Amino acid sequence: MKRIILLSLFFVFAFAAIATAQTKVSGIVLDKSNQPIPFANVVFKGSNTGIVSNEDGRFYLESPNTYTALVVTSAGFSDKEVPLEKAVNYNFKIVLGEAEALNEVVIYTGKTSKKNNPALDILRKIWERKRKNGLYQFNQYQMQKYEKVEFDMNTIDSAFMKNKLFKGMEFVFNHVDTSDVTGKTYLPIFINESVYDVYGDNKLKKVKENLTGNKMSGFNGNQQILSFVKDLYSDYNIYDNHLKFFDKSFTSPLSKTGIDVYNYVLKDSAYIDKKWCFNIVFYPRRKNELTFKGDFWVNDTTFAIKKINMGVTKSANINWVKDIYIEQEFEVENDSVFLLTRDYMMSDFALNKKEKSKGVYGKRTTLYRNHKFNIQKPEKFYKEEVNFIDNAVYERPPEFWEENRFEKLNKDEAGIYKMLDTLQTVKRFKQLYNLVSILGSGYIEFKNFDYGPIFSTFGYNEVEGLRLRVGGRTYFGPNDPWRIQAYTAYGFDDNKFKYGVSGKWMVDKKNRVIISGGNRRDIEQIGASLTTTNDVLGRSFASSALFTTGSNGKLTNINLSNVSIEMEAKKNFIIQAGLSYRTLESASKTFSLDYYTTLPSAANPAGVVQSMVKQSEANIQFEYMPNRKTIGYGVERDLVDSPFSHFFVNFSYGLKGVFDSDFAYEKIQVFYRQPIIIGPLGRTNITIETGKTFGTIPLGLMSVIPGNQTYFTIENTFSNLNFYEFVTDQYTTLQWNHDFGGRLFARIPFMRKLNWREFIGIRAVHGTISDANRAINASGLPYNAPEKVYWEYNAGIGNIFKVFRLDFSWRGNYLDMPDAHKFAIKGSFGFYF
């Protein structure tokens, strides 16, 4: 959601200067019968700057240099040179004729053969040498890295400029570069520059990047935009079998599985920088798969890539992105070592893939220089800092950037900084920016205070009826060392006010030592998740869903107070210890948490029953999230939206007698989640939860297997279970979900254009209850534990209208239980690439 909302920010804010390129060409390549020629090579004459036309034969090519001609080539057609009379040339129609017989190079058309194809012989040599080329030849390496990220609006016409949305901001269009032929305009709207010192050790398999400077136009300190940019442009290695962009796994043209995915054509050979190289063109064998089209030049002796250009095919099953173009250049060092020196990536973000749709270009240029090799560093050098804090890197003077930019900004790029500084003084711009910020964060910003989250304002359950909630948090900036949050809510049926307040204070920034505490009095659906924490302001969606399947009256009045201290002992490894006190009591006349304090006997057949649970508890927990990426260094940080493993262990101790606490027990809970990207087969998520309570406890402290009585998909719940259908004091659950990413539907012709995504999954749980815990149950709720493994399975269709997903779930067993749901349909909304 955050990514799409931030994209909308770039769509809305049109402010910049002239487009950067000196030579621009767009058009279509046709054969003599006026049929488009897909995957034709289009190159500026006398250069290695080119592109491959898309499935419809269309292309767009630009360069900061001046060129006077194009050379267009395609397998099976004669080469054609096209003169360029102007610097900007649009809507070219380039017609190629049939090729004459050639003796020098074997040409393939359509689907190429997997046998007797010289291009594949070269490809196999690349596989053999890929770990012996470039940086991999050395034990250690060092280099400097410069990264520039830009966003440019495109296809902006005069009607758009006159839109009332931009009232008061018209000055930003004063220098728009508009084509007299097409009316297309290109407006830079954002630029971010970063400089790094990079260190790597191939023996230790460690890489460290030290940020030495960062400069962002107009949005300094906006952590969400930084997070968004880092998420969009993750690092990749062109030699890897699969390349990850926008949370999708694309098959690399250099992949060992590429033979089954791509057609390869050995097209040409030539000297490049005094090195003899082969030119190989590649294009996909099938539509709708996550593949590229393009070409690469490879050396004839080292079989190292000298240059590669590739673009995502238009039919690829990816949302909001009309085009992706990648270009990498390698330079030769010491006569045989090919090192990456330039990496350029451009993405065209748009609401649809129509040729004339408006969109935003996102461009990342990464340059490398000053390579040094085999300078060994101790292993501790590569240890990541827990909380990187160096404000100086964000406040570098102009002299720093003049010295450390690998290439100078052109006039228009330099003007972005001044333009945005001016724009932020415009009242209308501030209003638009605040609106997008509210949608992204869920909070309405005031001075030093945020109201929200606004999406929690309304709720409904059978006890409270309609529920209204208001709240807020302190907010001085994204890197606040402390934060206080509070809310109050009112139910119109029970006529009661509820509230919650909590605070966090980071007392040691280096190791992220945080003290927190708070109190909450509210109505809650306990048992909505297995692995729980003592988060004071946490609240389950199950307690306030506007629509539910069946009764959701099994709610509890909870009064929870806690204090805790945590520290990040090493990067992404967090240790927390805390104390909590809670009281639990049924909030509904139709539901009971009663338990026996004295069991029924001959002398007292009714026993002694208690309705309220009073419990003090101490806990210590360990949380490890390798490869998690964060933004900022304050008490609350933003996450970069990339997959990472998650391992969580919690030990709890019931403190009987402390503040009249009722029970003594020990509890252990373990949670593990592992995302796995399986190349072209999609992405799998495996989640395992297990736990056991040692001691005698009542229903309010039991481990309830989480059901889902809403109409929406809720993570880590069982779609076909009701609340409290299974109760345990010892449990193990396994959940497996797999996203095929549309790869199956892409093979079905009539479904191909829908771009739907396929999901499958299975959930299972095993659990037991001790005799002692059964004996003290006076709630009237029958204790059922899944001593025979309960399981259910599901299949889903996602990307419906690009925002909706439907999941169909079937119950595997326990079909004869009262009110058992044998089949369920759940939905969810979300914006995904």
From TrEMBL:
Gene3D superfamilies: Carboxypeptidase-like, regulatory domain (2.60.40.1120). Keywords: Signal. InterPro entries: CarboxyPept-like_regulatory (IPR008969), DUF5686 (IPR043741). Residues 1-21 form the signal peptide. SUPFAM superfamilies: Carboxypeptidase regulatory domain-like. This is CarboxypepD_reg-like domain-containing protein.
